[in-house]
Specification:
Low-confidence stretches: none
Shape: globular
CATH superfamily of the largest domain: Phosphoenolpyruvate-binding domains
CATH topology of the largest domain: TIM Barrel
Largest sheet: 8 strands, parallel, barrel
Radius of gyration: 20 Å
Mean pLDDT: 95
Number of helices: 11
Strand content: 5-15%
Helix content: 40-55%
Structural class: alpha/beta
Amino acid sequence: MANFNELKKITTHTLVEMKHKGEKISMLTAYDFTFAKIIDSAGIDVILVGDSASNVMAGHISTLPITLDQMIYHAQSVVRAVDRALVVCDLPFGSYQADSKNALNSSIRIMKEAGAHAIKLEGGFEVVDSVKRIISAGIPVMGHLGLTPQSIYKFGTYTVRAKEKEEADKLINDAKLLEEAGCFAIVLEKIPAKLAKKVASLLTIPVIGIGAGGGVDGQVLVLHDMLGMTKEFNPRFLRRYMNLHDGVKKAVEGYIGDVKSMDFPNENEQY
């Protein structure tokens, strides 16, 4: 098996090359140094410092409350751990919607203060001006279409997006606009697999799916969901690779029992 630490650092250009070679892109979220170090050493291609930190790290019911300062803190922690993966940081709600100047200033802060390699933002034609302005400053941008969690109160539900022709056509047009504006990749969230496959075939940049089927160029999941740390979230697209929730709980219960029974620490575990 290859030693991933000896492999080339992943760049935005690498991802485009991977698409053209037909090599699938692996992407996971991370929000702290320890987990980022583990998944980077495992060979993950892209680490997303997602605004999903609002949910899994802070306990909010949506991604809306997390601030730019908090995203920068999480991104700083991740960047310190990473040797190989491309680190992309979400622009949180309220940090780019006002105007393109606001979007650029927020992006500059993430790049300067956190050292991230790229930013991600949600939306299509509504944010194209911001995308162009950010890219003109030399900052790579990843787009995000389909289910856009920052717009949850607009949609009112987390159900599958773009099932109807009108919304599907808009999504295709938005994807093309983002590519033309200079995005290096796009995330498609929770849309029909056929539509996602069509978008991926129309674009020359990588399309990374979450709940968008296997016809795209890569996949992304939230780390805490994939590891089975969360139990309440059970969408069809989520595959759990561990049951860390029960494993950690069992370990803690064992520790508590050993402390109470005075089995820990034993003679070999003290000075």
